[in-house]
Amino acid sequence: MRRIVLLSITLFSFCWQSGWAQTPFETFDFSLNGSTIINDNALLQNWNPTEGISIEARSPYYIGELEAGTRFVYYQADQFEGSAFRSIYMFIGWSYPIELGERFSVTPGFRIGNHFMWQDEKKEYFGDSGGSPFVFHRNESQFAYELQVRTAYNFSERLYIHLSASYKRTPINIPFEVAYVSVGFARTFSTPGWLRRFVQ
User: Fold this and answer.
1) What DSSP letter does each residue of 91-150 carry, written as one string?
2) How many helices, marked H, and strands, marked E, lie in the chain?
3) Residue 138 is part of a domain; what is its CATH number?
């Protein structure tokens, strides 16, 4: 965790010193994305996740971009009958686009937010060594963070497609660690004056 914080501070400092300031909230991007989980762990061996869907909004800030969004994934019961649950991750984040040409860009960034999990039933799970059970309540709400790298191809000034890879961690008793690959389409809009004044 310490290395992640230091890396984020270093990246932000570099961007700030570069002097690439811009007009904040002049435009905003709205995107709709589909995602799939690509890693494997004990959690994913016992639940079968569906493809995820997310909506995101991004806007230029003084340095980089600010963003907010939500991702939904349904985890079907596999090993434990009646244990299916719905996962919603609501987040805010910061990213920094790096232009690689007129149409291509790479954007590293990080997100923090809340991971909500609604389970069909309250469940108790026992590990291989026995002992006290790990309890999943029907409603769970935990802090989570995510690291992401996004690549984008611009069809025009207002429309682009993007592909991203991300790692999300929810530090509960059994850490909920998931890696995603996502693809989506985004549209850029001019921010109305009243909305720009409100967010500024």
Assistant:
1) EEEEE--EE-SSSEEEEEEEEEEEEEEEESS-EEEEETTEEEEEEE-SEEEEEEEEEEEE
2) 3, 12
3) 2.40.160.20
- The per-residue pLDDT for 25 is 86
Containing structural domain, residue 83: 29-199
Identify whether 5 is part of a domain: no
Residue 10 lies in a domain: no
The answer to whether position 53 is within a domain reads yes
Residue among 144, 87, 72 at smallest CA distance from 120: 87
Tokens at 60, concatenated: 């230029």
Over residues 87-139, the pLDDT tens digits come to 999 999 999 999 998 899 999 999 999 999 888 776 666 655 666 666 666 78
Q: Is 23 inside a domain boundary?
A: no
Secondary structure (3-state) at 154: strand
User: How many structural domains compose the chain?
Assistant: 1
Burial class of residue 126, CB neighbours in 10 A (0-12, 13-18, 19+): exposed
Tokens of 191: 């921010």
Calpha distance 178→155 (Å, rounded): 31
